[in-house]
Design brief:
- The structure is a single chain.
- The protein has helices spanning about 10-25, 85-100, and strands at about 30-35, 45-50, 55-60, 65-80, 105-115, 120-130.
- The protein is elongated, with a radius of gyration of 16 Å.
- Helix 1 crosses helix 2.
- It is about 25% helix and about 40% strand.
- It has two helices and six strands.
- A hairpin with a 2-residue loop joins strand 5 (about 105-115) and strand 6 (about 120-130).
C-alpha cells in the first residue's frame, strides 16, 4: 500500500464532486471548477473552488510505518457575478454530493458574502478517511 495515500485525497475528492455535479450543473454552461485558491475575482462565473485545507494524520501504526487514518477538511467557495441565488444553487448541489456520496459532515455551514457584484458562498466539510476507504 502507498505510504502517502492521503496525499491523493484532494484530487480524488475534487474529481468525484465535479463528476457527480456535472449533469445538474450543466444548466450553467460557463461554470468552472478549480482546486486552486482563488485569490482575486474569478475570470469565469459561476466558479466552484474546492480545496483541501491542512489535514491531520490519525491512527498511525505502532511501528510508525503506516498512517491508517486521515482527518480531511475541504473548503468550498462558490462565486457568481449575476445573483446570490445562482451561487446558492451551485453550493447546494456541490455540498449535497460531499454529504450523500462521500459522507463528509458540514463543519461550517454555507454563508453568503458579497463584494460589489460578486456573490460568494463559503462552506467547510470534514471527515475521517481510513487507509482502506474507497472514496
Amino acid at each position: 500500500m502507498d505510504d502517502f495515500w492521503y496525499m491523493k485525497v484532494e484530487s480524488i475528492v475534487f474529481d468525484r464532486i465535479k463528476k457527480k455535479s456535472k449533469d445538474y450543473l450543466s444548466k450553467y454552461p460557463d461554470l468552472i471548477f478549480t482546486s486552486e485558491e482563488v485569490t482575486q475575482t474569478p475570470t469565469k462565473f459561476p466558479c466552484v473552488e474546492i480545496r483541501e485545507l491542512q489535514g491531520v494524520e490519525q491512527g498511525i501504526t505502532l511501528d510508525n510505518e503506516y498512517v491508517s487514518g486521515y482527518l480531511s477538511t475541504f473548503q468550498i467557495n462558490v462565486y457568481d457575478n449575476k445573483s446570490k441565488q445562482i451561487a446558492r444553487d451551485v453550493m447546494e448541489e456541490v455540498i449535497s454530493h460531499f454529504k450523500k456520496d462521500l459522507h463528509f459532515s458540514i463543519v461550517a455551514m454555507p454563508i453568503h458574502t458579497n463584494n460589489g457584484d460578486i456573490h460568494r458562498y463559503i462552506a467547510r466539510v470534514r471527515r475521517m478517511i481510513g487507509g482502506g476507504d474507497k472514496l
